[in-house]
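Issue: ligand-bound run for pyridoxal-5'-phosphate - logging full I/O for the record.

Environment: standard queue, default settings, no custom constraints.

Inputs:
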Amino acid sequence: MQINRNFLSLKENYLFATVGAKFTAYRKAHPEKNVIKLSIGDVTRPLAPSVIAAMHRAVEDLAHAGTFKGYGPDQYCYGYEALLDSLKGSYARKGVKLSSGEIFISDGAKSDLGNILDLFSKENTVLVPDPVYPVYVDTNVMAGRQVLFADATEANGFLPLPDESVKADIIYLCSPNNPTGAAYDRAQLKAWVDYANKLGAIILYDAAYEYFIEDPALARSIFEIEGARDCAIEICSFSKTAGFTGVRCGYTVIPDTLEREGVLLNRLWARRQATKFNGASYISQMGASVVFSEQGEREIAENIRYYRGNAAIIADCLGKLDLRYTGGKNSPYIWMKCPRGMKSWEFFDYLLENANVVGTPGSGFGRNGEGYFRLTAFATEENTREACRRITELLDHHE
Ligand code: PLP
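Outputs:
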């Protein structure tokens, strides 16, 4: 018996588990302190009323023999047509035409980001932006794949562009980016699409935060870019768009013509899903199916506005303190340079102990994240304001 020894190459803990453990230990030692978390990217606003109503209707369906649902429909890998139609409509409004067979409903982006690697050989070389959401690197390390990094730094606005001297087979892009909040415009994405098509590489495009985009120059789907249907898979989620982090529903788009070595990747994924997945719950899918209705969009826009307001509060606070940061626009994340040359974990401890505010150390997202820190706009407005008041008090007095 042999275990998968690739796991031994991972850092001992998933980043957010380490942050959580430090938070819990501090709270235990100081139960009287009110610690504010501007760390994990979880939402706090309740679900939209139309989503709740749709989920209630779905529960009622399950209560009666005539409307009861078991496994989802086989035809579209357990995705219900109401949801597929709504997603097709949402993509059409971005100028992207999709067929139902190109959209695979999932229980969230994280699972699909890991699972999609089943389609690719271990021999492939993977290119991952640094810093980025740790799941891309960790899932590839688990599979024993070689990972190269594309440096995202202040010099390139945290938006690396293709380096012709690098030969990659699988390219991850995350836009708007977690953790830097930077988002690609269409011309920059076109450069990636052209590069991937030239190499015959596949882009895994994580659009989990696309709904935060306000700037019309930025793409909300990679399929807005000419040539993307020949090289891209898009992975997205209702988690941040509509507060589904606990409900669980996402979707992965694989064009039905996308092929490598004469094999259609859409068909490979359908085969993979039919074997290893049994669908997202009917209740989640029905809730998701109204997110892009007129009323649903109006309601979720209200929540997004709330988070954008928090981002503006944080940005304003850092700006007044003369601290360098990016993000906070087109993104729920603010990526700040740690003050006074502090390292990421050093600043984490400093902020936790002196302001009772928790953020996420940038170094946890990659080598280039050292010396940076991520704050999120997902807390309540009250907590965001209070955290900013404490940060200001701490850093204003000590500069
Ligand atoms: N992709 C990125 C970039 C994320 O930051 C996250 C969650 O924070 C996810 C995917 C996971 O989304 P889901 O809740 O759909 O699994």
